[in-house]
Amino acid sequence: MNMFLLAPFMPLQGSEYAKSVDLLYEFIFWLGVVFFIGIVGSMAYFVFKYKRVGEPRNIPQFSHNFALEVTWSVIPLIIVIVIFFWGFDSYMSNRIAPNDSLEIKVYAKKWQWEFEYPDGTRTLGEFHVPKDKPVKLIMSSDDVIHSFFLPTMRQKMDVLPGRYTTLWFQPTVEGKHQVFCTEYCGDGHSEMMAELTVDSQDKYKEWIENGGLDKDTPLDQLGARLYKSRNCNTCHSIDGTRIQGPTFKGIWGRTERITGGTTVVVDENYVRESVMDPNAKVVEGYERGVMPTYKGLLKDREVNAIIEYMKTLK
Ligand code: HEC
Ligand SMILES: [Cu+2]
């Protein structure tokens, strides 16, 4: 028999911690049931036993029963002490993430969740983690108070503007897990959801190598996603307007005038160089040092993806 009798009424147990939470919960629940039946049951029994029939009889009065009073004080005291230490122990292990945790930044804003991995991969509304590895989320909010709720891991933590909060879990069940926002944050609050996918180690590796997409995604689509997720779009438009940097519209094969009087035709090598070492060739009319280097932040496949994406921007 499953020791978790309430399991059918609970979300899936996605981690060992979820099981320990449920165990304590069941303990308190069944304790409540025992006391409820004991108290309400004896009440009902006494109602019938001592119900008034005929003329009032003389019933002896009691004021104290020392043994009884000690019993009903000491037993509950022991029970609440057990609950306290059990809960405290569980709480402490829940607050302190192991040192080898995968650290993921979580940004909440009305009304979406954004995730950032140590290698710079960013995703919106979904994130992947490997099975059996501890994961630590370092969370902050761009606007109001949100709350990150991952029911299958029995984890919930407020996400605040101007302060970091953290939460950790070690998933044991592969597949999809739902994330909710559980702090009312305005119009789109009930839509503010994200999806966690717990992958096998191999599948996770493949996913992260692909910049947060599955490996069948065509390069130009990956490029389009990187253009936004790596913030190229804050300085480069795709509709011809000039922002901080030159537009990407029609960039492929364009002849560019470089500060210092030379020219260059935009090809694979030039794009790669511009991304890895932006100051090597500065486009005339633009400022040196504005574009950050993406060295170490974009993998080879990602640079190729951006190149393929540029080719589509005619
Ligand atoms: C903070 C603003 C900024 C961001 C973010 C930025 N760039 Fe740039 N980029 C510039 C500026 C300014 C120039 C022009 C000066 C220069 O060549 O360094 C430029 C130039 C370029 C060029 C050469 C363009 C041409 O017309 O010859 C390429 C290619 C390029 N960026 C790619 C990217 C990619 C890809 C990303 C995102 C991964 C990106 N940039 C992110 C500001 C930015
Ligand atoms: Cu919210």
Description:
With 314 residues, this protein is of the alpha+beta class. It has two domains: 9-42 and 69-212, Immunoglobulin-like; 219-311, Orthogonal Bundle (Cytochrome Bc1 Complex, Chain D, domain 2), CATH 1.10.760.10. The chain has helices spanning 16-49, 66-95, 201-209, 219-229, 268-276, 300-311, and strands spanning 102-109, 112-116, 122-124, 126-130, 135-141, 146-150, 155-159, 165-169, 175-181, 193-199, 255-258, 262-265. A five-stranded mixed sheet has the order 3-2-1-5-8, with no helix packed on it. The protein has a five-stranded mixed sheet with strand order 4-10-9-6-7. Helix 1 (16-49) runs antiparallel to helix 2. The termini are far apart. The relative contact order is 0.10. The structure holds heme C and copper (II) ion. The site of heme C has 24 residues, from helix 5.
Give a short synopsis of this structure.
It contains six helices and twelve strands. It has 314 residues and is of the alpha+beta class. The chain folds into two domains: 178 residues, Immunoglobulin-like; 93 residues, Cytochrome c-like domain (Cytochrome Bc1 Complex, Chain D, domain 2, Orthogonal Bundle).
